[in-house]
């Protein structure tokens, strides 16, 4: 306990400087600004804003990044509540009751409930990360390369199972991402792989080009091509910002239960935030004395999924920070950004750069706090943004993406790469493939190759090593079981149904 | 600029993955495979190329037996214009890259071709 407090003090002393709070503030503001735009979810927002955090020192960069992430999430909830345009799967459930509340003129209250529930969940989950993070890291110390490989296989499997659409396609997309991750200099043999003599490829495909292409620009194209996907403009007034007593009484216990569910499911590799918001909504509906109010503007139906979503999003940092395992596309983006900052997430961060690790944790809480402080008074502004015309918006987004990609490498080649990935992402979208697994494969691929290589060198080329080691065998078994279960028709149907709802 | 594609989604996906797999194998054929105990640079790429090609082939073969939704009408304007604006941005940059820093010495624009300086 003492250790925990001293660690948190270390973290806050790094994160709570005026400068860093400023970065967190800017991050939250920009994240909300882009996240609130209808049709643009958390992943594209984070991908677009990533380049802004480069060029400042690592801790400030990470803090700003965390601010962008929370801001984007909160912006997404705002769009979900006011115009029923959930930018991502996690806020679909929020849209059900939040939008109904908004239609009844309680939109302001719904936004306040969402913000407060998220803040509460964020606080609890941040404490959880602080408490468990370091102990989980010491477990990870016992991992050998074979175990790491199996862990990554499990992580990828879980993220595929939770992805939308066909699992078979998701696997193929992930493997293609793996392949793109291998482009560049092979560190073991010094050979050039797929570089075609282009110096810009020697260090690998630019992470920004692939992520902004697949998520940012494809999103622009998608919105232009399917304009009907835009929600109607909010016509309701947002005046009464504060929830009344009854609403508060309904939502407080729901937020607490949502936090619990979200924290537990979020730790699982594979990103449980989406699952958590669905599960907590269902639970609240079952527990409620008036289940018929759900779907008609029940405050608990906003508080529970928002709390669960946020807690899950927060605790999904645990596998990233302790094991170096990104559990969903957003974590993969954050991990890529950390690597550009020269930090390789994993066990080493806690022991070698405790100031960074604890500073990041402290900044999560600061980010959550700033969101409440920032967003409630600014709700009017965000509503105004929802009505912005696309013909103004898209050129601005394009410009922003292009400059972002160019600023990293400073070469025109990156832009052509960006265009290439945009085209690929568009084609994949048109044939029913989600692009998200590609970024996971891209980030994890090179690490998997490295661990596979090391494990097999030690075992003398014997693939049995993955089954002989108990940790590795358990992880692989879990992954196989998961795929098997998903292949069963009964479950596949219920999964499809869950996504439809 | 609307294109109606009657090909099924699975067929198109299969063709894309087969192309990725084949390209990865073709352009990586000079990489040394090695063996499991002593992997060369090509070991994992070759394995991936094979698996991706196989999955693509399976996808397109399956789409012949099992019907899946067609790709449908594709509005070319958004994608073409987005890609074209990327290309325009890149080409304009390349033009400005050819201006040597010396030409920017007294001006924020290149003295010969008028392209603004990107960084000073």
From TrEMBL, chain A:
Keywords attached to this entry: Membrane, Transmembrane, Transmembrane helix
Membrane-spanning intervals of the chain: 21-43, 49-72, 109-133, 145-163, 170-189, 201-221, 330-350, 356-376, 473-491
Superkingdom to which the source organism belongs: Bacteria
DUF112 domain mapped to chain residues: 22-440
Alphabetized Pfam families for the sequence: TctA (PF01970)
InterPro entries (UniProt xref): DUF112_TM
The protein's name in its UniProt record: Tripartite tricarboxylate transporter permease
Organism: Aquamicrobium zhengzhouense
TrEMBL record, chain B:
Segments traversing the membrane: 12-28, 40-62, 74-94
Highest taxon of the lineage: Bacteria
This protein's name: Uncharacterized protein
Species annotation: Aquamicrobium zhengzhouense
The entry's keywords: Membrane, Transmembrane, Transmembrane helix
């Amino acid at each position: 306990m003492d250790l925990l407090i001293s660690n948190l003090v270390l973290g806050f002393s790094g994160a709570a400087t005026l400068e860093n709070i400023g970065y967190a503030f800017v991050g939250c503001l920009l994240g909300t600004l882009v996240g609130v735009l209808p049709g643009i979810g958390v992943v594209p927002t984070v991908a677009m804003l990533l380049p802004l955090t480069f060029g400042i020192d690592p801790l400030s960069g990470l803090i700003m990044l965390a601010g962008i992430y929370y801001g984007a999430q909160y912006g997404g909830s705002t769009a979900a509540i006011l115009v029923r345009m959930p930018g991502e799967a996690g806020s679909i459930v929020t849209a059900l009751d939040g939008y109904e509340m908004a239609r009844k003129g309680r939109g302001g209250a719904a936004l306040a409930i969402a913000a407060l529930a998220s803040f509460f969940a964020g606080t609890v989950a941040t404490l959880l990360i602080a408490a468990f993070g370091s102990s989980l890291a010491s477990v990870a110390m016992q991992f050998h390369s074979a175990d790491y490989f199996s862990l990554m296989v499990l992580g990828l499997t879980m993220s595929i199972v939770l992805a939308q659409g066909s699992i078979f396609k998701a696997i193929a997309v992930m493997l293609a991402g793996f392949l793109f991750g291998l482009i560049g200099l092979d560190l073991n043999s010094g050979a050039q792989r797929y570089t075609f003599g282009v110096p810009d490829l020697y260090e690998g495909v630019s992470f920004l080009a692939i992520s902004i292409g697949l998520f940012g620009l494809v999103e622009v194209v998608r919105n232009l091509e399917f304009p009907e996907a835009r929600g109607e403009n909010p016509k309701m007034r947002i005046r009464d910002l504060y929830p009344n007593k009854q609403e508060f009484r309904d939502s407080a216990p729901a937020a607490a239960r949502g936090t619990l569910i979200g924290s537990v499911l979020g730790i699982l590799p594979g990103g449980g935030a989406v699952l958590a918001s669905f599960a907590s909504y269902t639970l609240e509906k079952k527990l409620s004395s008036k289940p018929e109010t759900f779907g008609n503007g029940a405050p608990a139906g906003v508080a529970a999924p928002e709390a669960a979503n946020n807690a899950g999003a927060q605790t999904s940092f645990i596998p990233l920070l302790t094991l170096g395992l990104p559990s969903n596309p957003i974590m993969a983006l954050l991990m890529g950004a950390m690597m550009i900052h020269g930090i390789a997430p994993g066990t080493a961060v806690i022991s070698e750069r405790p100031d960074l690790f604890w500073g990041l944790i402290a900044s999560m809480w600061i980010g959550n706090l700033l969101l409440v402080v920032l967003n409630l008074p600014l709700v009017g502004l965000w509503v105004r943004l929802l009505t912005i015309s696309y013909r103004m918006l898209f050129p601005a987004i394009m410009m922003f993406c292009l400059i972002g990609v160019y600023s990293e490498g400073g070469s025109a080649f990156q832009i052509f790469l960006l265009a290439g990935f945009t085209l690929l992402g568009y084609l994949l979208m048109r044939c029913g493939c989600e692009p998200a697994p590609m970024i996971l494969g891209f980030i994890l691929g090179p690490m998997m190759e490295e661990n596979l290589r090391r494990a097999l060198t030690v075992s003398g080329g014997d693939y049995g090593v993955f089954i002989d080691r108990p940790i590795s065998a358990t992880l692989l078994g879990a992954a196989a079981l998961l795929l098997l279960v998903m292949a069963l028709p009964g479950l596949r149907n219920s999964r499809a149904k869950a996504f439809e709802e | 600029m609307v294109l109606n594609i009657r090909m099924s989604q699975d067929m198109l996906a299969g063709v894309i993955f087969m192309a990725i797999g084949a390209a990865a194998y073709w352009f990586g054929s000079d990489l040394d495979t090695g063996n499991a105990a002593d992997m060369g640079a090509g070991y994992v790429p070759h394995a991936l190329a094979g698996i991706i090609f196989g999955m693509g082939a399976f996808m397109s073969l399956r789409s012949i037996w099992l019907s899946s939704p067609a790709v449908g009408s594709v509005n070319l304007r958004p994608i073409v214009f987005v890609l074209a604006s990327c290309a325009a941005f890149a080409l304009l940059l390349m033009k400005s890259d050819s201006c040597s820093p010396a030409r920017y010495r007294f001006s924020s624009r290149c003295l010969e071709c008028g392209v603004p300086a990107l960084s000073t």
